[in-house]
Amino acid sequence: MSDSPRALGAPVVRREGRDKVTGTALYAAEHTAPGCLYGWIVPATVASGRVTAIRTADALAVPGVHTVLTQDNAPRLKEPDDPILAVLQDDRVPHRGWPVALVLAESLESARAGAEAVHVEYASTGHDVVLTGDHPGLYTPEEANGGFPALRERGDAMRAFDAAPVRVDATYTLRGLHNHPMEPHASTARWADGHLTVHDSSQGSSAVRESLATALGLDPERITVVSEHVGGGFGSKGTPRPQAVLAAMAARHTGLPVQLAVPRRYMPAIVGHRAPTLQRVRLGADRDGVLSSVSHEIVTHTSRIKEFVEQAAVPARIMYASPHSRTEHRVAALDVPSPSWMRAPGEASGMYALESAMDELANALGLDPVELRLRNEPQTEPDSGRPFSSRNLAACLNEGARRFGWHDRDPQPATREDGPWLLGTGVASATYPVMVSKSAAFAQAAPDGSYRVGVNATDIGTGARTVLAQIAASVLDTPQENVTIDIGCSDLPAGPVAGGSSGTASWGSAVHKAATALVRRREERTGPLPPEGVTVTADTGEETARESPYARHAFGAHFAEVAVDSLTGEVRVRRMLGVFAAGRILNSRTARSQFIGGMVMGLGMALTEGSTMDPAFGDFTERDLASYHVPSCADVPDIQAHWIDEDDPHLNPMGSKGIGEIGIVGTAAAIGNAVRHATGARVRELPLTPDKLLPYLP
Q1: Phi/psi zone of residue 346: left (φ > 0), alpha (ψ -120 to 50 degrees), beta?
Q2: CA distance linking residue 457 with residue 499, whole number of Å
Q3: How far is residue 540 from each of residues 204, 437, 439, 455, 459, measured CA to CA in Å?
Q4: Which end of the chain, C or N, has fewer beta carbons within 10 A?
Q5: Vertex 217, ends 213 and 223: CA angle to 5°?
Q6: DSSP state of 2
Q7: How far apart are the first and last CA of the chain?
Q8: Cα–Cα distance between 97 and 116 in angstroms, integer?
């Protein structure tokens, strides 16, 4: 692989890095216009019911408080395209933490003090926030998130399971998880001459503009949404959130710019979460480990106002060959905040259960877990029967085993010790679908030989600016420093959200197409360029409308070594290794960062992260970074990410697959499998905290 700055794959340093570390990169809550008011949300303190009275006199008496918006005086909205955006429109309280008022003041401190002085009275009704496997409200929806059928069956999975000589039947529990990006959700809104401009912390400003236009009853051309720099999102900023609507409403009501940042402890109730899941996995196999039956059943929750069903059973439909399969999602609507996307929705939670069950099957067979997976490689995608565009899971497993020293391990559990520490190793597979959406872009050649490329992409810390410049430069045959990239504004050619590991493929395809057309345009010209240059616009509507005849997925393999303190139950990850097959890697530096970031997030899922609903008060008990624990650098002493060189011509002009999410998929299972190998105990509930392990330790 060439390290030339013109070569795709070169480890080019991200363009905005210096701006971020020097503080010149401005985020949504840093665009503070003169006369700006600051907002503070008043959250509901009951889990279900309605507001009967709101008294604002004491709040308005706080020095600096300008206005208090409530259901009585807030601007009226049209019906939003997402019910979570219908804020301050009526007296309903669908869950604890729902915004019931917004205080606007001349300083953030005054806004917070004013919010504390608002008095709200409620008519509370009984609430139900606890998910159980036998909840009477469980039902099977038509679809899970992503448009996947909630129920899929091939053959007769239950009969095949009953007839299998070797069986695993286990239930795995995953508690609620929160995205917690470093930058909280924030919006700054201002109106000028009938035009609304919103700086929003979002993974897609085009989507925010469309939602604001619908809610406010405006022509989208009268709205500009800017998301130039975003401090992480992990899915929680993938759809418009209430703070953008509240800021726009408040700015319209007061006639002044309004800035609203969601306090971190409010985020779990307002911006989504990964819903808890109860997952029953049943695997049937012959004595050689060949699967005959795969069954994966999911129980999860959604809110009363919006159905969102974590598609956790979907990965089991495509991972391993089996003539019989049954995958089902069931959901209960509870008095909880609306769940939403969180990094690798469906795959992260579902593959934890499936890959844990595969490890249990390997143990029951006395078979190496890597070998078990290799024996169940499908020739075509089991769910659709389509050929894979490429499937290099076996190469990832074999290369990972070689690099990790997997085959040197003693397969017997609870046999390795280092003082009080019990040592173990584990493996798990990973997968994530290849997705691409319609996008548009322009490419402009200037008379001085420089280029400008524009697309409404969003860089959420992934290095999108840099990779898009590399894509354009490779087509234009110019150094990437010669290409200026414009992104992060809804006035640019429309692009999809940065989510689903589809951003680079979607935006990059449009950039590639526009740059290719610009090259042709220049070749057709004679003489110098005009002073304004030459501009070409292209979109990928035709390409993305065609359904691929191939099943397109990225794959990977995770290996982990852990040490479990036999006295305290503490788990320490000593080393992690991931090997991935994700098409052509477009920037080796930013790709490795993405893989490792996902793996660290998977470590948190395995060992530290988890949130429960308080049955009495109806809210999340772990809702800030003091109680919801994310990994630190000290938790990951040795982590490596590598990839297989994969040439897949059936993807996009760059030959790339998404990499933002596959790093988290499988990590938790690999760590859990390593803990089982270290201790001999299988704990089927995450996170693997000491209290869960201590009863099984000598």
Answers
A1: left
A2: 11
A3: 18, 8, 6, 12, 20
A4: C
A5: 35
A6: -
A7: 51
A8: 14
**CA dist., res. 677 & res. 413, Å (int):** 4
The string of pLDDT tens digits covering residues 246-271 is 999 999 999 999 999 999 999 999 99
Closest to 264 measured CA to CA, from 240, 238, 232: 232
What is the C-alpha separation between 140 and 143, in angstroms, rounded?
Answer: 8
Q: Is residue 186 classed as helix, strand or coil in its secondary structure?
A: strand
Token pair for residue 249? 């409403």
Q: Which residues of 323-348 are buried (b: 16+ CB within 10 A; e: fewer)?
A: ebbbbbbbbbbbbbbbbbbbbbbbbb
DSSP 8-state assignment for residue 662: T
**Per residue in 474-486, pLDDT tens?**
999 999 999 999 9
Distance CA 668, CA 188 (A): 37
The contacts of residue 267 (CB under 8 Å, 6+ apart) are 178, 179, 180, 184, 185, 236, 623
The catalytic site residues sit at 661
Helix, strand, coil shares of the chain as percentages rounded to 5? 30, 25, 45
Q: pLDDT band for 3, please (50, 70, 90 cuts).
A: very low
Q: Is the pLDDT of residue 166 over 50?
A: yes
Q: What's the pLDDT band for 2 if we cut at 50, 70, 90? A: very low
Which one, of 184, 213, 214, lies nearest residue 198 by Cα? 213
C-beta separation of 681 from 442 below 8 A = no
Cα(310)–Cα(317) distance, integer angstroms: 15
pLDDT at residue 6, as a whole number: 57
Residue 4 has pLDDT above 80, yes or no: no
Q: Are 252 and 190 in contact (CB under 8 A)?
A: no
Structure tokens at 638: 């040795």
